[in-house]
Design goal:
Blueprint: E1 10-18, H1 24-27, H2 35-43, E2 48-56, H3 61-71, H4 87-100, H5 117-122, H6 125-135, E3 139-145, E4 147-154, E5 157-160, E6 171-179
Antiparallel strand pairs: 1-2, 2-6, 3-4, 3-6, 4-5
Helix pairs in contact: 3-4
Protein backbone atom coordinates (compact mmCIF):
# COMPACT_ATOMS: atom_id res chain seq x y z
CA UNK A 1 0.00 0.00 0.00
CA UNK A 2 1.21 3.46 -0.84
CA UNK A 3 0.15 6.88 0.44
CA UNK A 4 -1.44 9.23 -2.10
CA UNK A 5 0.50 9.74 -5.29
CA UNK A 6 3.78 8.40 -3.92
CA UNK A 7 5.98 6.89 -6.60
CA UNK A 8 5.46 3.12 -6.58
CA UNK A 9 8.27 0.63 -6.96
CA UNK A 10 8.02 -3.12 -7.44
CA UNK A 11 10.98 -5.46 -7.65
CA UNK A 12 10.91 -9.08 -8.70
CA UNK A 13 13.26 -11.93 -9.45
CA UNK A 14 12.49 -15.35 -10.88
CA UNK A 15 15.07 -18.13 -10.94
CA UNK A 16 15.19 -21.85 -11.61
CA UNK A 17 17.99 -23.34 -9.56
CA UNK A 18 18.93 -26.82 -8.41
CA UNK A 19 17.88 -26.93 -4.75
CA UNK A 20 21.22 -28.54 -3.89
CA UNK A 21 22.88 -25.17 -4.63
CA UNK A 22 21.50 -24.11 -1.25
CA UNK A 23 23.98 -25.90 0.99
CA UNK A 24 21.79 -26.78 3.99
CA UNK A 25 24.87 -27.33 6.17
CA UNK A 26 25.33 -23.55 6.08
CA UNK A 27 21.69 -22.98 7.07
CA UNK A 28 21.45 -25.36 9.99
CA UNK A 29 22.90 -22.83 12.39
CA UNK A 30 21.75 -19.81 10.42
CA UNK A 31 19.96 -17.04 12.22
CA UNK A 32 17.65 -16.15 9.35
CA UNK A 33 16.63 -19.60 8.18
CA UNK A 34 14.06 -21.58 10.11
CA UNK A 35 14.35 -25.34 10.69
CA UNK A 36 11.25 -25.79 8.50
CA UNK A 37 12.99 -24.13 5.54
CA UNK A 38 16.06 -26.35 6.01
CA UNK A 39 13.75 -29.40 6.07
CA UNK A 40 12.06 -28.29 2.81
CA UNK A 41 15.42 -27.73 1.09
CA UNK A 42 16.59 -31.13 2.32
CA UNK A 43 13.44 -32.89 1.06
CA UNK A 44 13.82 -31.20 -2.33
CA UNK A 45 17.62 -31.47 -2.55
CA UNK A 46 17.66 -33.33 -5.87
CA UNK A 47 15.00 -31.23 -7.62
CA UNK A 48 15.02 -28.01 -9.59
CA UNK A 49 13.50 -25.16 -7.62
CA UNK A 50 11.47 -22.31 -9.07
CA UNK A 51 11.93 -19.28 -6.81
CA UNK A 52 9.85 -16.14 -7.22
CA UNK A 53 10.63 -13.10 -5.08
CA UNK A 54 8.44 -10.00 -5.19
CA UNK A 55 9.12 -6.86 -3.15
CA UNK A 56 7.71 -3.36 -2.92
CA UNK A 57 8.64 -0.17 -1.12
CA UNK A 58 5.17 0.56 0.25
CA UNK A 59 4.17 1.12 3.86
CA UNK A 60 4.51 -2.54 4.81
CA UNK A 61 2.22 -5.16 6.31
CA UNK A 62 2.43 -4.02 9.97
CA UNK A 63 1.21 -0.51 9.15
CA UNK A 64 -1.46 -1.50 6.62
CA UNK A 65 -3.01 -4.46 8.49
CA UNK A 66 -2.94 -3.24 12.07
CA UNK A 67 -6.23 -1.30 11.80
CA UNK A 68 -8.00 -4.33 10.29
CA UNK A 69 -6.70 -6.64 13.04
CA UNK A 70 -7.93 -4.23 15.73
CA UNK A 71 -11.35 -3.84 14.07
CA UNK A 72 -11.73 -7.64 13.89
CA UNK A 73 -10.60 -7.93 17.53
CA UNK A 74 -7.94 -10.52 16.78
CA UNK A 75 -6.60 -12.16 19.94
CA UNK A 76 -3.06 -10.98 19.29
CA UNK A 77 -3.96 -7.26 19.46
CA UNK A 78 -4.93 -7.34 23.15
CA UNK A 79 -2.69 -4.90 24.96
CA UNK A 80 -1.51 -3.02 21.86
CA UNK A 81 -1.27 0.72 22.12
CA UNK A 82 -0.20 3.21 19.49
CA UNK A 83 3.03 5.08 20.09
CA UNK A 84 4.51 2.54 22.52
CA UNK A 85 8.29 2.40 22.23
CA UNK A 86 8.68 -1.13 23.68
CA UNK A 87 10.97 -2.92 21.20
CA UNK A 88 9.73 -6.43 22.07
CA UNK A 89 6.07 -5.43 21.82
CA UNK A 90 6.71 -3.83 18.42
CA UNK A 91 8.62 -6.86 17.14
CA UNK A 92 5.90 -9.24 18.37
CA UNK A 93 3.21 -7.06 16.80
CA UNK A 94 5.00 -7.09 13.44
CA UNK A 95 5.37 -10.88 13.63
CA UNK A 96 1.67 -11.35 14.48
CA UNK A 97 0.57 -9.07 11.66
CA UNK A 98 2.73 -10.90 9.12
CA UNK A 99 1.14 -14.18 10.27
CA UNK A 100 -2.31 -12.57 10.04
CA UNK A 101 -1.62 -11.50 6.43
CA UNK A 102 -2.14 -15.13 5.37
CA UNK A 103 -5.58 -15.32 7.03
CA UNK A 104 -8.52 -15.36 4.61
CA UNK A 105 -10.21 -12.39 6.36
CA UNK A 106 -7.20 -10.07 6.51
CA UNK A 107 -7.29 -7.03 4.26
CA UNK A 108 -6.00 -3.49 4.33
CA UNK A 109 -9.20 -2.36 2.58
CA UNK A 110 -12.27 -1.07 4.38
CA UNK A 111 -15.69 -2.66 3.83
CA UNK A 112 -16.79 0.37 1.76
CA UNK A 113 -13.91 -0.15 -0.72
CA UNK A 114 -15.47 -3.32 -2.14
CA UNK A 115 -18.16 -3.01 -4.81
CA UNK A 116 -20.13 -5.95 -3.40
CA UNK A 117 -19.91 -8.94 -1.04
CA UNK A 118 -18.58 -11.23 -3.78
CA UNK A 119 -15.75 -8.78 -4.47
CA UNK A 120 -14.88 -8.67 -0.76
CA UNK A 121 -14.80 -12.48 -0.55
CA UNK A 122 -12.67 -12.71 -3.69
CA UNK A 123 -9.97 -10.37 -2.31
CA UNK A 124 -7.66 -12.97 -0.76
CA UNK A 125 -4.21 -12.58 -2.36
CA UNK A 126 -1.85 -14.14 0.18
CA UNK A 127 -4.43 -16.66 1.34
CA UNK A 128 -4.79 -17.88 -2.26
CA UNK A 129 -1.01 -18.04 -2.65
CA UNK A 130 -0.87 -20.11 0.52
CA UNK A 131 -3.41 -22.60 -0.87
CA UNK A 132 -1.42 -22.89 -4.12
CA UNK A 133 1.77 -23.38 -2.11
CA UNK A 134 0.14 -26.30 -0.34
CA UNK A 135 -1.17 -27.76 -3.62
CA UNK A 136 2.30 -27.54 -5.21
CA UNK A 137 4.17 -28.76 -2.08
CA UNK A 138 6.07 -25.49 -1.90
CA UNK A 139 7.29 -22.74 0.37
CA UNK A 140 6.00 -19.19 0.94
CA UNK A 141 7.38 -16.48 3.19
CA UNK A 142 6.47 -12.87 3.87
CA UNK A 143 8.86 -10.32 5.37
CA UNK A 144 7.80 -6.83 6.40
CA UNK A 145 8.93 -4.50 9.16
CA UNK A 146 10.37 -6.73 11.88
CA UNK A 147 8.09 -9.64 11.04
CA UNK A 148 8.65 -12.74 8.99
CA UNK A 149 6.01 -15.42 8.54
CA UNK A 150 5.31 -18.21 6.14
CA UNK A 151 4.52 -21.82 5.46
CA UNK A 152 6.36 -24.78 4.03
CA UNK A 153 5.09 -28.12 2.77
CA UNK A 154 7.18 -30.79 4.53
CA UNK A 155 6.53 -34.35 5.63
CA UNK A 156 3.34 -34.40 3.56
CA UNK A 157 1.64 -31.36 5.13
CA UNK A 158 1.71 -27.57 5.32
CA UNK A 159 3.55 -26.29 8.40
CA UNK A 160 4.14 -22.74 9.63
CA UNK A 161 7.63 -21.32 9.63
CA UNK A 162 8.57 -20.62 13.21
CA UNK A 163 10.03 -17.16 13.79
CA UNK A 164 13.73 -16.94 14.42
CA UNK A 165 15.00 -14.98 17.41
CA UNK A 166 17.15 -12.81 15.21
CA UNK A 167 16.65 -9.12 15.93
CA UNK A 168 17.01 -6.94 12.86
CA UNK A 169 16.18 -3.52 11.56
CA UNK A 170 12.87 -3.02 9.80
CA UNK A 171 12.54 -4.46 6.34
CA UNK A 172 11.22 -1.56 4.25
CA UNK A 173 8.05 -2.43 2.38
CA UNK A 174 7.16 -6.08 1.85
CA UNK A 175 8.92 -9.12 0.39
CA UNK A 176 7.10 -12.31 -0.62
CA UNK A 177 9.18 -15.36 -1.59
CA UNK A 178 7.71 -18.46 -3.21
CA UNK A 179 9.57 -21.69 -3.90
CA UNK A 180 8.24 -24.70 -5.81
Amino acid sequence: AYVGSTKRHLYYCVTVTPAKHFDVKNFEHGILTSPEEVKWLTENHDALMLEIAIADTGQGIPLTLWKNAKEKKCDFVIGWREGVKDVNMRSNAHQSLCNYAFHYASTRKGENEFINAASRLNWRGLHRCLRQTEFLSGFISLTSGQGRAGYVFVEGKLKPILPTNYSHTDFPGTLVTLRF
